[in-house]
Amino acid sequence: MMHRIARFSRPALLAGVGFSLSARASPRTVLVAAVVTPVVYLAYLPIMLLELPVGFAVAGPAVLAGVLGYVAQRLLRVPEQAVTTAAIVMLLPGLAVFRGVDSLISLGVGGTGLADLLSAVGTGLGLAAGASVGGFVARKVAGLDRVSRRVFQGRQRTDRVE
Fold first, then answer.
1. Which of 87, 95, 94, 120 lies closest to 9 in space, CA to CA?
2. E strand or H helix at 147, and its extent?
3. How far is Cα 68 from Cα 28, in angstroms, rounded to an integer?
4. Helix-helix angle 27-48:80-88, to 10 degrees
5. 12-34: pLDDT as tens digits
6. Largest CA distance in the chain
7. Are 66 and 135 in contact (CB under 8 A)?
8. Which comes out higher in pLDDT, residue 3 or 47?
9. What is the pLDDT of residues 130-154, one digit of tens each?
10. Alpha-carbon distance 146 to 152, whole Å?
11. CB 36 within 8 A of CB 83
12. What is this structure's pTM?
């Protein structure tokens, strides 16, 4: 059993570490991403067996990624978005986008390209919604951080660009 878990978590670990390194994250953030990314990917594997649409299937692990990103930010002082983004990188729909564009180019609109592209859009929306909901839920359960408290109390504007 442990051998099977290790076999599935190695690619996720490499993807999370590789993404963090390419984003020039600090060594501490890379270590946290190395732990969080396989956990999120291993949470996705049983959901895959339910044969849900991909957009729904990735939403659950993305919620977990949002929660773990916030917890890592609160406890370990690493950037929340860096950890969350590294955690969901294994779930991104890159191959579906490639297949969809390739099919549209070679077969035209009558092929499966449009369905592949719409599936990729659904996956992206599921990932974005799940990560946002996860961070929101974690803030509500664990307590708001200083900046979020100021925003919710109306003492800090979020609509201006500096």
1. 87
2. helix 146-152
3. 15
4. 40
5. 999 999 999 999 999 999 999 99
6. 55
7. yes
8. 47
9. 999 999 888 888 776 666 666 666 6
10. 10
11. yes
12. 0.83
Residue in the structure block whose two tokens are 């590294």: 86
CA distance 128 to 130: 6
Q: Round to whole Å and give the CA distance between 137 and 70.
A: 10
- The three-point CA angle 123-36-124 to 5° equals 10
The pLDDT of residue 6: 78
| Residue 123, token pair as written in the block | 């996956």
Alpha-helical (H) ranges within the chain are: 2-22, 27-48, 54-57, 59-76, 80-88, 94-107, 113-142, 146-152
Among 116, 115, 129, residue whose Cα is nearest residue 61: 129
Three-class DSSP category at 161: coil
Residue whose C-alpha is closest to residue 65's, from 131, 143, 122:
131
């729909």: which residue's tokens? 93
Locus of tokens 């946002």 = 132
pLDDT in tens, 47-105: 988 989 888 999 999 999 999 999 999 899 999 999 999 999 999 998 889 988 888 88
Q: Return the structure tokens found at 129.
A: 């919604």
Q: Which three-class secondary structure state does DSSP give residue 58? A: coil
